[in-house]
Amino acid sequence: MQQLFTTLLTGLTLGMVYAAFALALVLIWRATRIVNFAQAPMAMLTTYVALVLIEAGYSYWLGFAAALLSGLVLGALVERFVIRYVDPRSEINPVILTLGLFIVLHALAALVFGARYRSFPAPFGLRGFQVGDTTIALTGFGIFTILSVLAVVVLLVLLFRYTDVGLKMRASAFNQEVARLLGVRVGRMLTLGWALAAVVGSLSGLLIAGGGLVHPSFMDGVVVYGFVAAVLGGLDSPVGAVAGGLILGLSLSLVSGYVGSQLVSLAALAILMAVLLVRPGGLFARVRERRV
Amino acid sequence: MLSVRDLTAGYGAVTALDGVSFDAAEGEITAVLGANGAGKSTLLRTISGLVRPSRGSVTLAGLDLGTVPVEGMAAVGLAHVPEGRGVITELTVEENLRLGALGRGGRVGAADLERAYSLFPILAQRYRASAHVLSGGERQMLVIARALLARPRVLLLDEPSLGLAPRIVVQIFELVQTLVRADGLTVVLVEQNARSALSIANRGVVLNLGRVVVSDEAAALAGNERLRHAYLGF
Amino acid sequence: MATETSTETSAGQERPAHRRRRGGRLGAFLFATPLRRHLVLAVLAMVAVSVALESTDAFRNGQLAAMAYFGIAAGGLTVLVGLNGQISLGHGAFMAIGAYTAALMLRGENPLPLAVVLVAAAAVALAAGALVGVAAARLHGPYLAGATLALAVAVPGIPLHFSGVLGGEQGLTVRVPAVPDWFADAVFFVTGQDPGRSRYLGYVGWFCLVVTFVLLANLARGRVGRTWRAVRDNEVAAELAGIDLGRARVLAFVVSATCAGLAGGLLALSARIAAPSGFTLSLSLLLLSAIVLGGLGSLPGALVGAALLTFLPQLATTLGQDLGLSDVRAAELAPLAYGLVTMLVVLFAPSGIAGWVRRRRTSPSSSPVPSGRHET
Ligand SMILES: Nc1ncnc2c1ncn2[C@@H]1O[C@H](COP(=O)(O)OP(=O)(O)O)[C@@H](O)[C@H]1O
Ligand SMILES: [Mg+2]
Question: Which residue windows are transmembrane per the record (chain A) (predicted)?
Fold first, then answer.
């Protein structure tokens, strides 16, 4: 019982991080119909920005803010100077492009920051709270993780629902041609969409890194989990991404706790294939079937 | 108001428009007629910059539209309602309308929405609904209302009657006529339904295989039996 | 090696071999059919490989062996991506399967002959490829990419979990079987030298590569290849023409995975170990970049890509050290170069890739201006 509770709490925290990463993928998919496989190394790079600042003696929060900001800039640059030029009609070219970027960013990080493991601090406690004489698996940093991802979700909802920019971004995502005819500068909206997505991705990088080790590959697994979470939710739906993240986090945590931690990625693969083959539109799809 | 000169455009090797010239006078309805594939949609798409012409020019009140990007058309007073309507079904009715006003750079005012709803009372009832649930006629009304919120000088309408019941078509054409009379709007109306279009148009341009066959007063076109049989199908 | 597959969209545009080759009646005979031409080229390639292996030291022999297994894996992948339009980011996983199979089979006191071991490595990968391929046949573009990516990340976890049998983090060490006497005698007879194990593995690797490429080239040339290209170019048209889409895709996937399995077996022999760290995501991604660099769908291109994967790291590292980088960092210059060039090829040489891979089915009926570009 105690173990199940612990496992579920860990899964919840982890699920929130996957949700954030899935959200980043979904934002880009909605805007440009591209799955940004380079999201993982982008987040890795911005986490290094934070690490360098923190190691240089600045506060955690300054590093945190700098990472998010550099995510914003990196996302915008990547869209404007790389993604903009890929042939959108090809299925394979955008995939190869983002993978090329994956390799480049990876190598760049190892070149600049070195390939060794470096520990990354956490702003809050990493020990479970004490209730009576049992320790529950919820840590201060875990609570911070959950709250910060929730805050991001709320902010995004507010942005998309209630602001003009959000409306223009949605219009650009759904129908570029009509949006352009109505005077929306679709190109800028796409740049902005990538930038925001990269900020959310950076957040997930910081959350994964907190209290752990950072090295150039530390986000590689997360891109898979984020993708699986996004597909669970339907790839088009931000709410679905969050739900998918939570479901995945809990499932993987159960696998890790009861079967074996090395099989987590195999379980993720199994879940992904099951969803794609049985409910290609995602768990929450209403009617429309989707070609996958 | 809108002046098209020697406009030539195509898709790769296909030439869809070949030296098209005509004028749409201010405060008038100019019908562009012709069979399926004649190049009518391409004409409108080239005017609004979605297709880049290989030759020729378009001017709006003296302004050369060749230098204006698609995104800038709304700001210079050109609205284009594309074929198949272009309702963004993932947004609500109200969001679609807000988008119309945003495009010209302004915020949508209460007065704007008020006017849209008074022209199209049906939209007022469903403004919170997803545009997905609207009927074909309602969608057509929504896109026209949305285009008007940008306060255009010239409105390009691509087959507004497509797939609508005759009763609705009459309603929509009457509305277009009202707008022209009330606001002095200039309309370029692309239609396959030539009979209805000519009944409200001042002038008509007949296209065939990307070329202008004839352009004349609407009444003269409607009265020319040979032309009607050959190109207009009524 | 010039066992080239068609680089044109349609098989009908291939140049007949005899028109390019003048010469006597022997030449006419040898180059009369694609198969004969491939076999002749295969023999010539084997001769060239022997010269290369005999004239270099054990270190270079090892590199050539590496180039052979990269070439086999890349050849299989380029057929899948270039000719069939599917994508796999998971070929490292199939290589791992082949490597572990070979490592396990070479464990006992009296291991089976090397040929049997390599065939088994390929066969196990074939089975795995069929399993994955059946699922993958229904997926497209980013979905297929994501699923195979998950595969690449998942498979190295298996030996960690079953560490008893598969050696865990340390992996399995591989005993390279002794050089067979007949082989040693034959080489000694020609060169007057005893071949070492590295040289032996070089021969084995290149022999496998040549056989694989001849088979792939013939597949690509024939009816199967035409089916693959038809499916790639236009699924709807292919289906109307009576092609079973699922079968064509599964077959392409299986062929491709089998090549990767064989490559993995050879890798285990060359590296003398099969360990999870040898089959990271990077391996799968580098393979993909290798075939993009070489030109998708082209077997000679795959070989060029394999050569780059093998030899560029050393060159780049030396260059980096000259520039004052530590070796660890200098080693990153090579992947940096692969990645950059891959991106550039995709962006600026779309005729090399897009023309083949583009699915007309998805091309929008709307504007000829690519909808990705906008004035800002
Ligand atoms: N996106 C496109 N790509 C290629 N050809 C097109 C495209 N759109 C239209 N065409 C061709 O251009 C010609 C004119 O089409 P269009 O302007 O749509 O005619 P209309 O609107 O009068 O029916 C037709 O021959 C059509 O096949
Ligand atoms: Mg049309």
Answer: 6-27, 34-54, 60-83, 95-115, 135-160, 190-211, 266-285
B12 close to C (CB below 8 A): yes
Tell whether A176 is within 8 A of chain C (Cβ): yes
Report pLDDT for B163: 85
Alpha carbon distances (Å) from A79 to A25, A167, B34, C373: 14, 20, 42, 11
Best residue for ligand 1 mutational test, from B17, B42, B50 (most atoms within 8 Å of Cβ):
B42
Interface touch A96/C342, C-beta < 8 Å: yes
Q: Which of A71-80, C192-201, C228-237 has the lowest mean pLDDT?
A: C192-201
Q: Do C374 and B71 touch (CB under 8 A)?
A: yes
Tell me, yes or no, whether C272 lies in a domain.
Answer: yes
A287 vs C239 pLDDT, higher one:
C239
- The number of distinct structural domains making up chain C is 1
Pocket test for ligand 1, best of B14, B44, B211, B212 (most atoms within 8 A of CB): B14
B71 interface with C at CB cutoff 8 Å: yes
Rounded to the nearest angstrom, the minimum Cα separation between A53 and chain C is 21
CB-CB neighbors (< 8 A) of A181 in chain B? 48, 50, 70, 73-74, 79-80, 82, 86
Nearest to A249 by CA among A3, A39, A8, A6: A8
Domain range B2-232, its CATH number among 3.40.50.300, 3.40.50.970, 3.40.30.10, 3.40.50.720: 3.40.50.300
C214 has pLDDT over 90:
yes
- Render pLDDT for B29-72 as a digit per residue (tens, 0 to 9): 999 999 899 999 999 999 999 999 999 999 999 899 999 999 99
Strand partners, A134: A131
Report the C-alpha gap between A106 and A44 in whole angstroms. Answer: 8
Is residue C349 in some structural domain?
Answer: no
Residue C369 has pLDDT above 70, yes or no: no
**pLDDT tens digit sequence for C240-252:** 888 888 899 999 9
Say what the pTM is: 0.85
In terms of CA atoms, which chain B residue is nearest residue C365? B11
Nearest residue of chain B to residue C369 (CA atoms): B51
Residue ranges of C 287-306 with Cβ closer than 8 A to chain A = 288-289, 292
Kindly provide the ipTM of the predicted complex, given to two decimals.
0.91
Amino acid at A279: R
User: What tens digit of pLDDT does each residue of C296-309 get?
Assistant: 888 888 898 899 89
| Smallest CA separation from ligand 1 atom 12, residue | B16
Ligand 1 center–CA C277 separation, angstroms: 55
Is C24 contained in some domain? no
N-term to C-term CA, chain C = 48
The closest alpha carbon to B46, from B24, B73, B13, belongs to B73
Contact partners, residue B47, CB within 8 Å, separation at least 6: B2, B4, B7, B58, B65, B78, B80, B156, B188
Say whether pLDDT at C366 is over 50: no
Does any CB of chain A come closer than 8 Å to the CB of residue C108?
A: no
| A227 contacts on C by Cβ (under 8 Å) | 146, 149-150
The CA distance from A108 to A53, in Å, is 18
Residue contacts between A and B (CB atoms, under 8 Å)? 65
- The DSSP secondary structure of C308-339, one letter per residue, reads HHHHHHHHHHHHHHHTT--HHHHTTHHHHHHH
Whether C55 is covered by a domain: the verdict is: yes
- Domain span at C156: 34-280
Mean pLDDT of A206-220: 92
Query: Where along chain B do its domains lie?
Result: 2-232
Among the listed ranges B135-144, B189-198, C61-70, C191-200, which one has the minimum average pLDDT value? Answer: C191-200
The protein residue with its alpha carbon nearest to ligand 1, atom 5, reads B11
